[in-house]
Structure formats: C-alpha cells, structure tokens
Design brief:
The complex is a heterodimer of chains A (515) and B (308). Chain A is of the alpha+beta class and 515 residues long. Chain A has 16 helices and 17 strands. Chain B folds into 2 domains: 111 residues, no CATH class; 151 residues, no CATH class. In chain B, helix 5 crosses helix 7 and helix 5 packs across helix 8. The chains are: A alpha+beta (515), B alpha/beta (308).
Chain lengths: 515, 308
C-alpha cells in the first residue's frame, strides 16, 4: 500500500517529467460497468415500494429481509424496462435467461447472496454511439462507439451506515431492481467515459427506465482502468467503484490513469485491487487491503424458473420483445439529427437541448405554437436562460419555465420589439416567477426597443463626440475600438436596437475616415 | 429425528426411531393428536416416517403445491408432504394445498383438477400397469420389507393389475448426486444465518469477518458445518463444472429413467425404506451420510426427478 503522501509525490514527479517522456508511449484502457436502478414502483422480487423518500427500513417485505421460507416473484415491469433499454442499446435479447445467486457476506446483504444473472443474462452484444467533447483540445469533438457485453437484471443491496462505534443497516434499498450494463474496455480516458455516461443518461431518461438521479444512487459507475505501453500486453487493472457523478467519472479515471503511469514509470507494479473515488481530495483510495480474489460461488437460483421472452414466431413468454420494440421513442441521437436537419440547429445547440430535456420541451412547445426562428429560440434557451441558471447557481430540474412567457419573449425579440438585453431581463423575471406576462412588463417598464434610425444615429454621434480619444485610436486603425463604441452605446440604454446601431455606427465612422 | 418410546414395549426400554425430519408430524398423526400434518419432503422426510408409523405419506409432484413458508433445505427438491391415516384424508388435504400459487414461481401454472375418489366398492385396478424397478432390490433390503413388497405385488396382480419388471439404471447414483446438490443448496440457504440478522451471534468485536467466522463455527454443529464447507467447495468457480454441473447432468439421467418408465407403466411399486424402523442403538453408530444412504435409497430418486 502506498500512503497518500507518497502518492502525491509520485503524481507530482509525473507532472514535472511529463514533457520528458511522451505520454503517447502509454496507452490507457478503460471499461465501464454501470448499475442503473430501474424506474419501477416496486422491487425486483417483492411488492415493497421503491420510494426513496420513505423513512429508513420502511420499504422492507419479509422477502427483502431474507426471512426463511419467503420466495422471489419477478416484477414484470422490470423485465419490460430491461428489454426496452436493451433494444434501445442495440442488444440481442435472449429468449431464455436465468437467475443466479452470487454469494458474499455483508451486513446489508441479509440473505448472504444477491440474485443476479451471471451465466445467461437477459441481453448481450449491444453498443452505444456518442459524441466525445475533449475540453483540452479546443472543443474538438469526435464520435465513438462502445460495445456492450451484457445487460443483466439484479437486486440492489441494502445500505450500511457507519459511525465510530456502530454500524446500522437500512434495507430500503435491498431488492431495488437494477440493470447492470457491462461495457467492453474500448475507451481511453475519463472524458470518453463521462461522455458515454452522459449519453446513457439521455437514453435512460428518454426511455424512462432509470431516473438517473446520481445523488440518490440511482446510477452508479464502476470503471476498470489499466495502462500499458504501445505494442505491449494490457497492464494490470484496478477497479474504481461506485462513482457517483458524471464529473467524478472523468476525474476518477484520469487520476487513476496518471497514478498508474507514475507508478510504472517509477518501476513499481500495479496491484489488482478495488479503489474508491474521494471526491473531496480528488484521489482514488484502495478499498480493501486483501489482495485475494473473491469467489462468489455462483449457483442457479432454484426458486425462479428460466425467464422466457417472446419474440418473432415465439409468442410465449413473460413479455413480448417485438411489442416492446414498438414502444421505443425517438432516441437522443435521432432527436439531435432532427434538430439539426429540420430545425437547422448547430451540433452544439442540438447536443445541449438533448442533454437538458427541460429545455428541449420548451423548445418543441414554442416552435410548435409560434412561427419563430429556431436558431433564435435555441440561442435564447442556451445563451440566455441556461446561462442565467448557471450564473445564479440554480438547478435546471427545479426551475419553472413558463412556455407562454418564454414564447412571447422570443417573439418580441424576433420582431425587434425588444433588444437582446431586454430579453435577458425578461427571462430573469420569468425565473423569478413574475405574475405578469412578458408584454405587460415591456409596456409597464417602457422597454420597447428603440428602432428609430434617427434616434439611434443621434445616439451614435453623441457617443463619438464624447470620446474623442477613442475616435483617434479608431482612425489610426484600431479595429477593437469599434466594439468599445458599441459597448458605450449599449451601456447607455438596454433598449437600443444594436443591429441597427452597429450598421449606423459603421456608416458614421466611415464618414470620419473619409474626411 | 424423533425418538419415540413405543407404548407397547415401554417396559423393555427399547427406543424405536420414527426417523425423518417430519417424524414429529408422523407421531402427531399416528397418535391421533391431529387429523393430518404437513411435513417437508426433500429426500423422503415425509414418506419415511409415514412408513415407519403405518401412515399414508404423500410427496406431491414438485410444483403441484406451493412452497411458500416452507423453510428450505434443497429448494429444487423440497415439497410440502402430507401425512394422514387414510388415503381419503390425504386426498382431501391435497385438494386444498395443490394448485398454482402466484407467490411461488415454481408452481405449475396449469389449473389443478381436484381428485375425486370413487367409492371403495367401485374402485378397480384391473389392467393397471405396475412397474417394479429391479434396481430397488438393494443388498441392504431387509427380508421383512422384501416379503411385504412381494406380498403387495401379488395382491395387486390378484386383483387384475399387470405387474412388470422395469429398469431404472441410474437409481444407484441418486444418493451421491443428491449429496452434492444438497450440500450446495444448504451452503447457500444457510448463508443468511450469519449472526447479523439471523442465527447465533458470537461476542466478537474485532471485525465483521471475525464475527461471521466465530458465530458460524460456534452456531452450527459438525454435520451442518461439514455440509456448508463441502457445498461451498463444490460451488467454487474451479469446481463448479466438475461437481455441481456434473450432478445436474446425473439428475437429468435419473429424470430420464422415470420418463422412460412412464412409457411402459402407470405406477411404480417400491419399498419406502429398506428396513422397518431401526432401533436407536443401531442407528446412532452410523455416520450421517450412511444414515441418509440407508434411509432414502428408495424415496430419494423421486425428489431428484421432481416426481410424486
């Protein structure tokens, strides 16, 4: 084991020397395993509710507490959700799948085993396509595909709460339905992994098969990470378990890659172990000091018959995969394509709207009801509304967007009745839940845009006269000053039509030049 | 296991065993303390004590009656067994407990058709094809049981049944196959008795692992500990194919024996136990595994095959 001190020293040394040994010599390999709680009213094998907000140990049936003589009964909704998800992720659905017992001792696992699908899972061989945004290299984006090895249904365990003297067990989570998605190790770094998870979240939300509330543990990511030199065999891997946010996925994996590279560079060996991400200190920490591998002694679950799924000519089964396929809604990549092709949005705009379903809803609603420029609406949502939400540290999921108010604002902006600045002000008012309509505010606060060319020209001339130094600089060829002039004009009044002001200012300054 | 002082032989102080885990049920029914009893039957635990006590003991086909509430031993073989003094009583109980239970996914979905027995004077076994599996002539079969078997066969034949010798060649593998599957499922089912929620908890605070280890080694006796350890050994990743999966294959062969037999005959006539009720002194000198091999030889294959 390495102390944190030693680790940080190593890490530091790596950073110092990183220019001397090219990182391109090193290849990092990342594979993900995702545990997604299935959005269902009751648990996977019992009728207990899954409500997260219930008090401790309230959602516990006799079966969940592993009382001897109780039996599991499979929740059909969970099978449907898993099949729907598997189909949306291009998987092959297995007409027969089985349940296994995975044995290990832990206080929050009352039966001493977890029912899962190890040997023959519900689905295999799928893939997910997603866009990766590399923040380091100037927002360059590329598309990537990660293959899915299998999707299996399984029970969640309970929760242990520890303090210095006691360990307490909450069984509310015991038996909550999970889909485990096992991805092939075909990623290279944290950004790719985070982008994959982001797209997976989009798909889950679109299918409504997982709430993806990572803060509630509804989506947990395990990452297998190893590094090796180009042309050599794969390195020893470590597993970072239970990563609880998308940002942490990128952080934990990148840290782990660099930690491993630093150790190898130093001539040390990587230990095959389970680690956890410490989001406060931004490091991964070894979880168990035992290096021996656990043997889970898998055994077929004798209390559950094989799970049959009807498809094609086979009509017999718990659910029918062909019917479920018809329920797949427009998937995120299809929505992005439609937004780009039919609404002329840029890739970035489409990505942001699909990532934030709330914005997409407003967008679709406003576009449907009013003949508006789609780009203008998207910009108003992304550059004004989303910007405002982030700046004020509001949570997008919690805010209320009034589509009528928003639509009116967009319409007035498009018709040049208000300036961009006024639109920003109106969006702010909307998020503060003003009882007035957008038009009422514009009229009562006298915010109608100044479109009169004479008035704007006058304003421009005044500004130029008031700033002779700037004029001199401009005439000497400093183009930047043009924007500074515009800034002064805007600062005097939020109501000026800046498009017209720009044109008129140019015209006036050109006259000065030609004098 | 039940020790019963036989009323008639009390003076001689000879303990006769009414063996099998549902022995208590058998005593209760045979003494008239109750009309009928439900026991569990994993390898013969209902039929053996019924036989020793002169009762009707029925092991329903696996999946016919719900296992909900039955404390599991070997989930894939356990059934609720019925003990009564008369066949009519047994039918009455079966008609109540049989049928699909949505809370036991292994029960048959097909609706249960209640059994109605015709009056005794209208019962006929004319033309009934009765199979005698030759492999059940075990070397351990006592003369008394062998005679009774012969007698019943002749009785049936006299009343018009066709008696036919058949072969069920995999019978002898049943016990060894059972001992693997039993130990694996026992190891799994007893995992919940870890001293945290269920079972004895040792007074150890060093670590959770230490608590588990101490509680379980103190809380289980030799026989149970032995089964748990061997069961877990069979289930180890490296051993799964060799033991557990191989046992499943043998189990399939035993089932095939039954399916083949049904092509030729309608019922099988076999002893329930190899001997009459053993005396305590003879019994206690045998190891647990021998006891099992001895007691369940004739009953056990039906559990393996899921038959009644």
């Amino acid at each position: 084991m390495f102390s944190n001190l030693k680790l940080s020293k190593l890490y530091f040394r790596y950073i110092l020397h990183s220019r001397e040994f090219s990182t391109s010599k090193w290849k990092s390999v990342v594979g993900l395993e995702v545990h997604a709680q299935i959005q269902a009213k009751t648990k996977l094998f019992s009728a207990s509710p899954t409500d997260f907000t219930n008090p401790v140990n309230r959602n516990v049936s006799l079966f969940d507490a592993a009382i001897p003589g109780t039996l599991p009964v499979l929740n059909k909704r969970c099978v449907e959700a898993a099949v729907l998800t598997a189909l949306a992720l291009n998987c092959r659905i297995n007409p027969i799948s089985m349940f296994d017992r995975k044995h290990y001792f832990y206080a929050d696992l009352p039966a001493g085993y977890q029912i899962t699908q190890q040997r023959s899972p519900i689905a295999n061989n799928g893939f997910i396509d997603f866009q990766v945004y590399d923040t380091d290299s100037h927002k360059r984006s590329y598309s990537l595909r990660s293959c899915i090895k299998q999707i299996q249904l399984e029970q969640d365990s309970g929760k242990s709460l520890h303090d210095e003297t006691h360990s307490l067990v909450d069984l509310n989570r015991a038996g909550i339905p999970l889909m485990e998605l096992v991805f092939e190790p075909d990623l290279c770094n944290g950004e790719e992994a985070a982008s994959l998870i982001k797209e997976l979240v989009n798909i889950f939300r679109c299918l409504q098969t997982c709430s993806c509330k990572m803060e509630e543990g509804a989506l947990r990511v395990d990452a297998n990470v190893s590094v090796h030199k180009d042309g050599e065999e794969l390195g020893v891997r470590t597993e970072v378990k239970n990563i609880g946010s998308i940002r942490a996925v990128a952080g934990a994996i990148n840290y782990e890659i660099q930690r491993q590279m630093a150790l190898l560079q130093d001539g040390q060996k990587i230990v095959n172990e389970t680690r956890s991400w410490n989001s406060i200190n931004k490091i991964t920490v070894s979880m168990r000091d035992k290096e021996e591998k656990q043997d889970y002694r898998y055994m077929p679950e004798p209390n559950l018959p094989p799970l049959y799924i009807a498809m094609g000519p086979t009509t017999w089964g718990c659910v029918n995969a062909d019917n479920i396929r018809k329920l797949i809604p427009e998937l995120p990549h299809e929505t992005r394509k439609r937004l780009k092709e039919e609404c002329n949005l840029t890739t970035e705009q489409a990505v942001i709207l699909v990532n934030e379903l709330k914005l997409l809803e407003v967008f679709s609603d406003v576009i449907l009801k009013k003949k508006l420029n789609t780009n203008l609406v998207a910009n108003l949502l992304i550059n004004v509304l989303l910007f405002f939400v982030n700046k004020e540290k509001m949570i997008l999921e919690e805010i209320v967007i009034d589509p009528i108010f928003f639509g009116e604002t967009a319409e007035m902006l498009q018709n040049e009745m208000i300036s961009h600045k006024t639109a920003q002000f109106l969006i702010g008012e909307m998020l503060k839940l003003t009882p007035k309509t957008a038009k009422e505010i514009v009229i009562s606060c006298n915010l109608l845009q100044i479109n009169d060319e004479d008035a704007i020209r006058k304003r421009c001339e005044e500004v130029i006269e008031e700033n002779p130094k700037m004029l001199q600089q401009y005439l000497k060829g400093k183009q930047k000053v043009f924007k500074a002039f515009l800034g002064v004009i805007a600062s005097h009044s939020d109501k000026v039509n800046m498009k017209k002001a720009t044109a008129l200012l140019k015209e006036i300054l050109d006259k000065y030049k030609n004098k | 296991m039940v020790l019963q002082k036989m009323f008639g032989v009390l003076k001689m102080m000879i303990f006769i065993l009414r063996e099998g885990s549902s022995g208590g049920c058998a005593i209760a029914v045979s003494t008239g303390a109750c009309f009928a009893a439900i026991g569990s039957d994993t390898g013969g635990s209902t039929r053996n004590p019924a036989s020793y006590c002169g009762l009707v003991g029925l092991k329903p086909t696996y999946g016919l009656a719900s296992r909900l509430g039955l404390i599991p031993l070997v989930n894939s073989m356990d059934v609720p067994g019925i003990l009564t003094r008369y066949v009519d009583d047994c039918v009455a109980v079966l008609n109540v407990i049989a049928g699909h239970d949505p809370r036991d996914s292994t029960t048959l979905a097909k609706p249960y058709k209640k059994i109605i027995l015709p009056p005794a004077n209208k019962l006929s076994i004319k033309g009934l094809k009765v199979g005698i599996p030759v492999e059940y002539y075990s070397t351990h079969l006592s003369e008394e049981v062998w005679c009774a078997w012969q007698e019943v066969a002749e009785l049936l034949e006299d009343h018009g049944a066709e008696i036919k010798e058949i072969s069920m060649p995999n019978t002898e593998y049943s016990i060894v196959c059972y001992s693997i599957l039993n130990q694996c499922e026992v190891a799994s089912n007893l995992a919940r008795y870890d001293g945290i929620e269920f079972g004895f908890r040792a007074n150890v605070n060093l670590s959770t692992e230490k608590l588990y280890a101490t509680s379980r080694s103190l809380g289980f006796n030799d026989i149970v500990r032995n089964r748990i350890l061997t069961g877990n050994y069979f289930l180890l990743n490296k051993n799964y194919e060799t033991y557990f999966n191989q046992a499943l294959k043998v189990r399939r062969l035993i089932l095939n024996d039954f399916d083949k037999a049904w092509e030729e005959v309608q019922v099988l006539l076999t002893p329930t136990t190899l001997t009459t009720a053993p005396k305590y002194n003879d019994f206690k000198n045998k190891t647990n595994r021998d006891q099992c091999a001895f007691q369940d030889y004739c009953t056990q294959p039906a559990n393996m095959a899921g038959k009644s």
